[in-house]
Amino acid sequence: MATTTVARGKAAAGSTKAKRKAPFPVEFYRSALGKKYVMAITGIMLMGFVFAHMVGNLKMYLGAEDFNHYGEFLRELIVPILPRTVALWLLRLGLIGAFGLHIHSAYSLTRMNHAARTVKYQSKRDYIAANFASRTMRWTGVIFGLFLIWHLFDLSWTGTGATYVRGEAYQNVDHSLSRFPVAGLYIVANLALGIHLFHGAWSLFQSMGWNNPRFNAMRRNFAAGFAAIIVIGNVSFPIAVLAGIVGN
Amino acid sequence: MNELNLTLKIWRQAGPDAPGSFDTIAAPGINDEMSFLEMLDVVNERLINEGKEAVVFDHDCREGICGTCSLMINGQAHGPQKGTATCQLHMRKFHDGQEIVIEPWRATAFPIVKDLMVDRSAFDRIVESGGYITAETGGASDANLTPIPKPVADAAMDAAACIGCGACVAACPNSAANLFTAAKVGHLNLLPQGQAERFSRVEAMVDTMEEFFGSCTNHGECQEACPKEISIDFIALMNKDYLKSKFKNRKTLSRG
Ligand code: SF4
Ligand code: FES
Q1: What share of chain A is helix, strand, coil (3-state, %, to 5)?
Q2: CATH number of the CATH domain containing A149
Q3: pTM exceeds 0.80, yes or no
């Protein structure tokens, strides 16, 4: 073991482990490894949503009636077991919770990481394995998060133009994405999402401890494939609107 | 043999809290069969003969087994050669006229002692917290009394190869020590002799690690820098055992 005779800072003070009192899930979330599990599990939930969102939106290609009917279907989900829109709201609450935890764990882990290297390297680093995607997770995440707020205003809450009509999903998509800057914004945001997924969908396997020689080689392919499917699907919508394939 | 004329940019820092800066030192006439540390020895000898202060750097075995040498060489931990420590790096990896930038490991948990030497005691804290097994006392038992499948023994040996150099922390953009800790945890947790403390070990060692280091974001940079080529597979194994430990240890925890 490499040691020097000089002991400084925290290392010299010895372990100062706090007394553990909180219930198991809270205790687990307090640890960085626990936060990584939460990051991975919420990531999987969000991936499921992003995938379903993309597949659902493909209905756009079937025309206004089908697309708006799909919107109605979501509101009617498992009616009559639950009243109208209740299932949809439960799903939404789950998503909001997942987002909140994903962002909170990212935030606190980032702070921990910054504290772990207060003096940075003073010369240029030469990375071997860390790629663009893995080193920009924070940025792609923040960019997509900001886009998401815009997206909710644009197509769910208020609309961002004069022509928004609540419930007329097909027309709203058409009107919004016919604007060049908006279409551009959707494309850029989805590329950021793709980059985020390229690392995240791989990284979650490691965080969850899903490591097995039988499928390890597949993990990177899965992440790349998943990111590609999402990006191709989502980016096709603004392009289709601009090209006049979708719209009136 | 070839002769190299090099320019070194070496981090000099008088003490732990002193400000540091790069010093440019010309290193002409370097034999390319020298190891990197021998090159530094030559440079130091020249500095001493000129009445200047020698560059302080860590080294011991000089054959890649002790984990004492370090150095960030041109932005890579242990320099540009894969699977070797700085002491096993040869000057033939560099070309004539090259500028070589040498920096100490940078992590809050590895404070600089002087120049290129850092204090890696935080690793000792991690090992102290769980890197042991309960051994029976009394007469020595027969060799091979405990059967261990060959693949398990091999995997444990791969983990045990960790020499505790700290290159994984140095290379990690997050200053995480997960590869080191996973190697130390995995080495014992894989073997039958390590089962008694398996879950208390992983919990204690991870919790201690988190007091000092950053968190893993799965860049994979550590396994590229590691002189023993420890695989990040061990990090996944550690994560799996850590989750289990939180389930298994939770009763004892609430009594703590
Ligand atoms: S895991 Fe590799 S890089 Fe990290 S301390 Fe051990 S030998 Fe060094
Ligand atoms: S000096 Fe011992 S490993 Fe390099």
Answers
A1: 70, 0, 30
A2: 1.20.1300.10
A3: yes
